[in-house]
Design a protein that fits this description.
Elements: E1 3-14, E2 17-30, E3 32-37, H1 44-52, E4 58-63, H2 68-71, E5 75-78, H3 92-101, H4 112-124, H5 140-154, E6 158-162, H6 170-185, E7 189-193, H7 200-203, E8 206-210, E9 214-219, H8 220-223, H9 226-233
Parallel strand pairs: 3-7, 3-8, 5-6, 6-7
Antiparallel strand pairs: 1-2, 1-4, 8-9
Helix pairs in contact: 3-4, 3-5, 4-5, 5-6
C-alpha cells in the first residue's frame, strides 16, 4: 500500500526569528527516498521537525490522513548526532533495544523475540563484535549505524533522518545507504535532510528544495536542475562527480 505525507500552508516562526518557514505545501507518496536539501539556515531540519510535531507550526500536516500524533507508532526518527549525549552510559545492544520499547507498555520487559530482532539488526549494520561496547567509545560512523539499527527494530513505515552522513566514514555511509534502499524495497518511506549535493542524484528518488519555504519538490531529475538550484543557492553551487556546475 502506498504511503502519503501531506502538508498544507505550514509555517514556523520563532520569537527572534520570524518566518523560518512559510506557506509550505508538499505531498510525498511512498515508498520513496526523499531528500530535503538547501543552504545552511534554510529551514531543512525545521521542516522535518515540524512534520514530526516536535516544534509548533501553523497549517496542516497529515500522514496517511492522520495527524502526526496519531501516526507516531509508525514513525522512526534519527536526529542529528550533535544533539545526542554520547556520555550516557549505555551499550550498543541496549541502545538498539530502545527501538523495541516504543511498542511496549511502561515497564514491560523485552521478550526473547525482541532481543533476537535487536541482535539481528546489530549484525545487519556490521557491529555484532562491538555489541557490548559503550556508545561513547564509538566513532561517528559506528554510532550512526547504531541509530539506524534502532530504527530497524522499530519496524516503522516512515523513517525521518536528519543529516545522517555528517562526520562519518565512507564505509558507514555505504552501509547506511544499503539499509535505506532495502527499507524502500520493503515499502517504507524515507525522508532525509542532506547537505552533500554530490550524492543527491545517486541517493534520492525525490527532492524537496528548501529556502525558508519549499521552492520546488518532485522527482530528482526534474527538481535538481539549474533553474531551481540557482535560485536556492544564489548561483554559486558546485556539484562534482558529473553533476551540474554553477559559476
Amino acid at each position: 500500500m502506498n504511503s502519503l505525507i501531506t502538508i498544507k500552508n505550514v509555517g514556523v516562526s520563532y520569537a527572534m526569528q520570524p518566518h523560518v518557514l512559510r506557506d509550505c505545501n508538499l505531498s510525498i507518496e511512498g515508498p520513496t527516498i526523499t531528500g530535503i536539501i538547501g543552504p545552511n539556515g534554510a529551514g531543512k531540519s525545521t521542516l522535518l521537525k515540524a512534520i514530526l510535531g516536535l516544534i509548533p507550526s501553523s497549517g496542516e500536516i497529515r500522514i496517511d490522513g492522520e495527524t502526526t500524533r496519531k501516526a507516531l507508532s509508525r514513525i522512526a526518527y534519527v536526529e542529528q548526532k550533535s544533539h545526542i549525549d554520547f556520555t550516557f552510559p549505555i551499550t550498543i545492544r541496549e541502545c538498539v533495544a530502545l527501538g523495541r520499547t516504543v511498542k511496549k507498555a511502561p515497564l514491560q520487559r523485552l521478550t526473547k523475540e525482541d532481543w533476537a530482532k535487536v541482535d539481528e539488526a546489530i549484525e545487519e549494520v556490521g557491529l555484532s563484535e562491538l555489541a557490548t561496547r559503550q556508545i561513547g567509545a564509538l566513532s561517528g560512523g559506528q554510532f550512526q549505524r547504531v541509530l539506524l539499527a534502532r530504527c530497524m527494530v522499530q519496524e516503522a513505515d516512515y523513517i525521518f533522518l536528519d543529516e545522517p552522513f555528517v562526520g562519518i566514514d565512507m564505509l558507514s555511509e555505504k552501509v547506511i545507504m544499503t539499509i535505506i534502499r532495502k527499507w524502500k524495497e520493503e515499502g517504507k518511506t524515507i525522508l532525509m535532510v542532506n547537505h552533500d549535493l554530490s550524492k543527491v542524484k545517486e541517493y534520492f528518488d525525490h527532492v524537496v528544495l528548501v529556502k525558508h519555504g519549499i521552492v520546488a519538490s518532485g522527482k530528482t531529475e526534474e527538481v535538481f536542475i539549474s533553474k531551481y538550484l540557482d535560485h536556492v543557492y544564489g548561483g554559486s553551487v558546485y556539484i562534482p562527480q558529473g553533476g551540474e556546475q554553477h559559476a
